[in-house]
Amino acid sequence: MPAPPSRQHRLLILIVAYNAEKTISEVLARIPAGLADEYHVEVLVLDDSSQDRTFETSRNAQCGIAGDFVLHVLLNPVNQGYGGNQKIGYQFAIEHGFDFVALLHGDGQYAPECLPDLVRPLRAGEADAVFGSRMLDRMGALRGGMPLYKFLGNRLLSWFQNRMLGASLSEFHSGYRVYSVAALRQIPFELNTYDFHFDTEIIIQLLIARLRIRELPIPTYYCYEICRVNGLKYAADVTKAVLRARSQRLGLFYDRRFDCRPAATDPTEYEPKFEYLSPHTAAIEAVSEGARVLDLGCAGGYVGAMLRRQRRCRVTGVDRVPLGLGVELDAFIIHDLNHGLSAIDLRDYDCVLLLDVIEHLTSPEAFVEELRDGLKLSPETMLLASTANIGFFINRLMLFAGQFNYGKRGILDLTHCRLFTFSSFRRLFEQGGFRVREMRGIPGPFSLAFGDSRVSRALLAINTALIRLSRGLFSYQMFFVVEPLPSLESLLRRAEEHTTDRTGAVETS
């Protein structure tokens, strides 16, 4: 077959079919012939191991297609489910170099006549995915035969999904979609369910990946295939998927299928936490005016920059990645703390910051001992350290439910090497040659999760009160103020000096 003209975008029309012998020929015949004027079009009928003659009927339908389109008919030897059938079709589009892939159903519930309108925004570069919506015309779905209880269920589920995901789609449950193949390459759709809520999971992935979704109105034809869906199970599956994605966003859960957020342009990994009570705000409050500060693991230098502005401190930052965009410190050293502290002079600092750093180190004990050795000549140096509290009640409840999930952020960060409770964090410093002067519990970052709202303020007040009741159970993070103990060498020298002074005084008298 000759290669299509380079000026034409390649469009694959994917028709997922199961027991569609009676309808598949009509669906193929209704594909607009005019699409061939704008695109190189091929059609793929993917028969999901039907129990009727869907495969044979599709193969014989080439002469009934209105346009001069290449027709492919593939048969799954084992039923892959609604989601699994889509996965195979999208893989076909990727492997064969298509630009766009349009999803149709073999039962005819979505009008092929709408295809030119749905593909056009992709061709114009205005969207990465276009969904045909039955809810943009609010009463159109009912006029098209959708039962009232399904109409209300669609509206309620879509409202819930929008609230949880920060979206504004008119509906999440239409199966009429056109995707940019480039967008499909950016999301792990192959990890999604094989069931009917595949459509919800791929929307979640598009939203997390910050890809552009556009909706256009389509007519409603309420047909047979949708009746195959167990409504209660479908609603439960959709709710579960949305709550998983929301939990991952809050740092409480991790699922690889929802790990598709684009990389930040800023090379630093962590954001400043100045808008709510956090180790950052606690450290700024604890550092004295004009102090000389060493910020180990400064994560972009945001805390140091704030100390320079608010406390007029002199700050040296250390991290394995460059400073954040627009951040300035008095000095900065690029260094991976897992390689030790030999490259850093720890003398002449009034304060050392270790904010959310120790949990990322492969050997915290060796690091703390090396830090103590480096501070031998600076026994007055104050050390401010923080880490997540693995004993937080949410983690305990998750363990009770059999869950232990690392996430992109939060207490169970994927980059964490070690986890601590109040007692184990205290023991780390005490056995490393430090004295713990203060231990504070930090409540959860509710404003980060829910914004500056009444809900977040109420949760913060409740969490703060509960911390007073049980610091180890209700603290989201721990904030320690510690100081180096005198070393045995210095104590011996002082004893010798004191003995000499005392002996001299006795002999003189």
- Number of folding domains? 2
CATH fold naming of the largest domain: Spore Coat Polysaccharide Biosynthesis Protein SpsA, Chain A
Q: How much helix, percentage-wise, in residues?
A: 25-40%
CATH superfamily of the largest domain: Spore Coat Polysaccharide Biosynthesis Protein SpsA, Chain A
Runs in which pLDDT lies below 50 for 5 or more consecutive residues are: 1-5
Short summary:
By secondary structure, the protein is of the alpha/beta class. The protein folds into 2 domains: 241 residues, Spore Coat Polysaccharide Biosynthesis Protein SpsA, Chain A (Alpha-Beta Complex), CATH 3.90.550.10; 212 residues, Rossmann fold (3-Layer(aba) Sandwich), CATH 3.40.50.150.
List the helices and strands and how they pair.
Layout: E1 9-17, H1 24-29, H2 35-38, E2 39-47, H3 54-59, E3 70-75, H4 81-95, E4 100-105, H5 115-123, E5 129-133, H6 140-143, H7 148-165, E6 177-180, H8 181-185, H9 198-208, E7 213-217, H10 231-249, H11 279-286, E8 292-296, H12 302-311, E9 314-319, E10 331-334, E11 351-355, H13 364-374, E12 382-388, H14 393-400, H15 422-430, E13 434-442, H16 446-450, H17 454-469, H18 471-474, E14 477-484, H19 488-508
Parallel strand pairs: 1-2, 1-4, 2-3, 5-7, 8-9, 8-11, 9-10, 11-12
Antiparallel strand pairs: 4-6, 5-6, 12-14, 13-14
